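Internal tracking record. Fields below are filled automatically when a chain is submitted to the structure queue. Please do not edit lines marked as system-generated. If the sequence contains nonstandard residues, flag them in the REMARKS field before resubmitting.
Queue: standard
Priority: normal
Entity type: single polypeptide chain
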Amino acid sequence: MNIEVFERRENCLDMVLRNGDMAIANALRRIMIAEIPTIAIDLVEIEQNSSSLPDEFIVHRLGMVPLTSEEAENIRYTRDCTCMQYCPKCSVELTLDVRCDEGEGRDVTSFDLRTELPRVQPYHGREDTDGVLLMKLRPGQHLAMKCIAKKGIGKEHAKWSPVTAVGFEYDPLNILQHTKLRAEESAEREWPPSRNAGRTELREGKTYEKPTEFFFSIETTGVLSPENVFLSAARILGRKAAELRRCFEEEAGRT
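SYSTEM-GENERATED OUTPUT FOLLOWS
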């Protein structure tokens, strides 16, 4: 198998996986969505909330704030740690302490979250100057919380998924005829080619032949780069295959 990258933007990657198999392409897609470890707020200790919003509403919004997760490899899962609830080895502590004393009100955003670990911060895009809006405070209101971020995967909760969208396309010219382009008047007009149509070579193909080119489009939340997401998925798939082979060889050795 080989890979060619077509376009790289801030949190997006367009690439093609050649000489591959549908099962491998789909396994990579599923792993990118659900099995790559990241860091997200999982526990919140509320010290003060005199706003008009209930605690549960604010906590839910905090959990969905994307946190940069390059440090996830060096943090333990809570279930694998020997501590009672959380510790520096399995968690990252963030604080939120905002007070509105005057004026018409104050926005509370992800920029107000503070942490002592530089590599775990709320993610903000290059052109993002507003941050994620959490709530608004009126004069005299105070919000103070301690947030505990933990390591997890998207299979446990969507807040740990590093991608907003990931998908792949094969046979953009429909040479293999896996899809019937039904049209009322003109298939060319009613089924315009995708942007990947110009990235593949026009060739002869047998109907229902297995595809070998898979055009991936990966868009992340910013917690990890799209390259990191794809490579992590490949490593996880490799470990799964190695474990399956080990189990098979052990079972074969018993017979």
